[in-house]
Amino acid sequence: MVLAWPEHLVYRVAIAGRDDLAVGQFAVLWLGLVVVVALPGAAGTVVGGLCATRSDRSGSWPRLRRWLSPAHEDRVLRLLLGRSPDPRAWDFFFAERPRALLRLRLPDGTWLAGRFAGDSYASGFPHDPDLYPEEAWEVGGETGRLGERGSGYPLYVAAGAVERIEVLESSTAAEEA
After folding, report:
1. DSSP symbol at 98
2. How many Å apart are CA 171 and CA 149, to the nearest integer?
3. What's the pTM?
4. Comparing C-alpha atoms, which of 161, 152, 141 is closest to residue 114?
5. Contact 159, 123 (CB under 8 A)
6. Domains (ranges, CATH) in the chain?
7. pLDDT tens for residues 51-110?
8. How far is it, in rounded angstroms, from Cα 154 to Cα 160?
9. Of 144, 75, 69, 143, which is closest to residue 103 (Cα–Cα)?
């Protein structure tokens, strides 16, 4: 699109005498192409960047975010994308990149726990919901009582292996924020 004007000049010089496209007609066609292709592409890039980084507001579009408060940004994204772009409750919760201690109950009654923070991962739609908290925590027997501290290694929980998730606030996660 940027090279359209030089290409038009070459066209007029190379094919002189044939029914060439007038400069005014070319300008209208070029402007139409900008409106139909470039503006929606740029708008989609901006909205996608805002949506992808909406939870921590870091990274992309710092100038735009200077003008948009978090509340205004949320309203704009709701207007353009709908109420929630997340198709499942799992995606809604983990899209915000929470920092919390999770206690998980498996179908066989076993309890697991892990700290979900910056280096953790939760898969999103359309993939099966598996979970990778960055640090496993000690859990006491059938009661699911949490131990004093984390074990220092990550925990992988396969898709479909979780019967119930309890979200607990973690003071260490709050301090990292």
Report:
1. -
2. 11
3. 0.50
4. 152
5. yes
6. 4-81 (no CATH), 89-176 (2.30.30.100)
7. 777 766 666 778 888 888 888 888 888 888 877 666 777 777 777 777 888 888 888 888
8. 19
9. 144
